[in-house]
Amino acid sequence: MQNKTGFAPVIAVLLAIAALSGMDALIKGAASSFGTLQIVFTRYVLGFAMALPFALPALRGGLPMQSIRANALRGAVIAVTATSFFFALGRLPLAFAVTLAFTAPLWMVLLSRFMLGEPIPRQSFAALGVGFVGVLVLVFGGGKAAGAEGGLDVPGMAAALLASLGYALATVLLRKQTAYDTIPVLVAGQALVALTLIAPFAIPTLEPLEKLDVAHFLTIGVLGTLGHFALTWGFKNAPASRLAPLEYTTFLWAALYGFVFFAETPGPELIFGGGLIIAASAMVATARVRTASAPA
């Protein structure tokens, strides 16, 4: 891996997070007029169309069966993850849904142990406990935190947690796949598999798009594709330990977009519970750095 010591990877990741957070806000806006399946399907149709030209050079020589199987598995996980998260965005306040998604690093600890055989540092065990308490604070913090006037939005929260687990699984699978696939192949492959799996369910539910809707979805596609390219490039060119803390700026963008576009104000439950989850994620990140730097 080529590590760049300048600020280019940092800037790339910060811009990627801003773009992907903007995409989430646009998806939440679209959820008021369109079904989840149509949003997911349209998102990946556009994503595949935008990534394909960059992936063609690698595809001309054909892909090994290992790559095809890996893309199929990861694409299926991405399809479930995106559908769950987009569903959650339509039901929960933006910052609340994003905060639940921050449990992904905690899932990664367990998945990395069972799928990759990586040891779990003691600090990570403590992080799992802190993160679990943070989730409990969010879940049982009351309707104000969940944005449900009549009580907790159980389907929305369950979908957000499922998306978090799916994202963690997709990330662990990605760590294996980057050894033999290029970034464009990864982005185009996951989009193709996701839209193929979603198509039979989404096509019967498609509703006509007005000109403004087309522009809305095109912007979602552009932000999503550029965000994934920039994020992958950044982590490929700098140590993950240096860039991982930047992920926490997602919460700031989500809170800003939620306040500006949806008049959402984070409550104390969200701030406290979210703080615990972010602290747990930071504990996981620092535990990995210490483990990696320890003498063999």
How does this model look, in words?
Helix content is 78%, strand content 0%. With 296 residues, it is mostly helical. It has one domain. Helix 1 crosses helix 3. The chain is globular, with a radius of gyration of 19 Å. The two termini are 21 Å apart. Mean pLDDT is 81; it is low at 292-296.
β-strand percent reads under 5%
General form: globular
Question: Could you say how many structural domains there are in total?
Answer: 1
Mean pLDDT, as a whole number?
Answer: 81
Instruction: Tell me the structural class.
Output: mainly alpha
The biggest sheet amounts to:
none
What low-confidence regions span 5 or more consecutive residues with pLDDT below 50? 292-296
Estimate percent helicity.
Answer: over 70%
Please trace the helix and strand order, writing H or E for each element. Answer: HHHHHHHHHHHHH
Helix segment tally: 13
- Indicate the radius of gyration in whole angstroms: 19 Å
Number of strands: 0
- Cα separation of the termini: 21 Å
Summed up:
The chain has helices spanning 8-30, 36-59, 65-91, 94-101, 104-116, 122-139, 143-146, 154-177, 183-202, 211-236, 240-243, 249-262, 268-293. It is an all-alpha fold and 296 residues long. It has one domain.
